[in-house]
Design brief:
Number of strands: 9
Radius of gyration: 19 Å
Order of helices and strands: EHEHEHEHHHEHEHHEEE
Strand order of the largest sheet: 1-4-3-2-5-6
Oligomer: single chain
Shape: globular
Bound molecules: adenosine monophosphate
Largest sheet: 6 strands, parallel
Strand content: 15-25%
Helix content: 25-40%
Distance between the termini: 30 Å
Number of helices: 9
Length: about 280
């Protein structure tokens, strides 16, 4: 596996691969890799000649009071995991390589899509995501880029700007990878104690309860949200940030599930903020 640290290195690698007529799959990550990231990489491996992973904690997508400094950085362990896929090249730049002095260009997806769910609580977050993903797509010359349903709103935002900016990359959404307990895998799970991890199972449990109710015939969105939040409230260590539902992928308000609906939650377990979701009434594509 090649380790690429500079813009010049990834551009040269991508050019060589393209000159050889190879297809390129890009998997953007912030490192601290877990099985969820690896499912994206394995999918990219199946569908492309070359797999490029970015392992970069992107400062621009963190708010001033968020966990940028504390975010886990374990590059050597990440490399060992990527070798098992195997990945062809990892792009691991310094922040100053991505945002050198004088940097002043950002991709801003305006309108409703970025002002609800995590966008409402993390101002500027999706501007940071859209900016870095655009740069990574340009640098890697990817044919396909892989994202997890775990961050379903992120997938909607990425699909939106890829369409709006005529970027020639196909976006692939990969289902949520969970621990046996049902807990969605996340780099932030490592912030939690064992007691907190046990409590965090309430996220997937509450969504499962709503999904069961939906499958038993409950189509009213407010009722499905209430089933979810009532279940979360049974866990003393949990504090709800939001329980919300919108059409998927457009993220428009809806009262009755007559088309695919994203039921999404953000919950703090102690100090750790976790997200999870389920798509009701349709396939996650
Ligand atoms: P992150 O490193 O947290 O920015 O995540 C990088 C990519 O991995 C994003 O597209 C995430 O949606 C995806 N991802 C993170 N956790 C999971 C998971 N449990 N299942 C599937 N994809 C995931």
């Amino acid at each position: 596996m090649k380790v690429l640290k500079t813009v010049a290195e990834i551009q040269a690698f991508a050019k060589q691969m393209k000159d050889e007529g190879k297809t390129i799959g890009l998997v953007p990550t912030m490192g601290a890799l877990h099985e969820g990231h690896l499912t994206l990489m394995r999918r990219a491996r199946q569908e492309n000649d070359v797999v490029i992973v970015s392992d970069f904690v992107n400062p621009v997508q963190f708010g001033p009071n968020e966990d940028y400094d504390k975010y886990p950085r374990v590059f050597d362990a990440d490399c060992e995991k990527m070798e098992t896929v195997p990945v062809d090249a990892v792009f691991h730049p310094e922040p100053s390589e991505m945002y050198p002095e004088g940097y002043c260009t950002y991709v801003n997806v305006e309108g409703d899509l970025t002002h609800k769910l995590c966008g409402a609580q993390r101002p500027g977050h999706f501007r940071g995501v859209a900016t870095v993903v655009t740069k990574l797509m340009n640098l890697s010359r990817a044919d396909h880029a892989y994202f997890g349903q775990k961050d379903a709103q992120q997938v909607s935002v990425v699909r939106r700007f890829v369409k709006d900016l005529n970027i020639n990359v196909e976006i692939v959404m990969v289902p949520i990878c969970r621990e046996e307990s049902g807990l969605a895998r996340s780099s932030r799970n490592r912030y939690m104690s064992d007691t907190e991890k046990a409590a965090a199972v309430i996220l997937s449990k509450s969504l499962r309860k709503a999904k069961d109710a939906f499958e038993a015939g409950e189509k009213d969105v407010e009722t499905l949200k209430k089933i979810t939040s009532d279940e979360i409230k049974t866990e003393p260590l949990a504090t709800i940030d939001y329980v919300d539902a919108y059409t998927y992928p457009a993220l428009e308000p809806i009262k009755t599930v007559t088309e695919p609906v994203l039921l999404a939650i953000a919950v703090k377990i102690g100090k750790t903020r976790l997200i999870d979701n389920v798509i009701l009434g349709g396939d996650a594509k």
